[in-house]
Amino acid sequence: MKKSILAATTLLLLATTSAQAEVVDVSTLKCSDLLAMNTEEGGSILLWLHGYYGGQSNDTTIDLASFEATGTAIGEKCGAEPELGVMTAIKQITDEQ
After folding, report:
1. C-alpha–C-alpha distance, residues 28 and 5, integer Å
2. Closest CA to 31 of 86, 95, 72, 71
3. Would you put residue 5 in left (φ > 0), alpha (ψ -120 to 50) or beta?
4. More confident: 74 or 3
5. What does the pLDDT look like over 22-50, one tens digit per residue?
6. Mind giving me the DSSP string for 26-82?
7. Separation between Cα atoms, residue 89 and residue 73, nearest integer Å
8. Which of 36, 53, 61, 75 holds its CA 20 to 30 A away from the CA of 26?
9. Number of C-beta neighbours around residue 73 at 10 A
């Protein structure tokens, strides 16, 4: 049940994002850019980042509680350092853990 809800949410996020026809180079995305996005855009970026880093480590799982906690940590880090790159912020957060 949870997997089908997650799949439906993911499809909704992707449909919303693709309808805007915007291309985002995540490697150049700053925290201030992420914070300025609406919930759907920001959620899509965070979901993409989870998949990107999960793919690098061959991790095919998603722990929703951990995903939420990491999203909160990214928000806090970005709020404190808005000119920091999002991917740099994530690296700093994971290095601290």
Report:
1. 31
2. 86
3. alpha
4. 74
5. 888 999 999 999 999 999 999 999 999 99
6. GGG-BHHHHHHS-HHHHHHHHHHHHHHHHHHTT-----HHHHHHHHHHHHHHHHH-T
7. 9
8. 61
9. 17
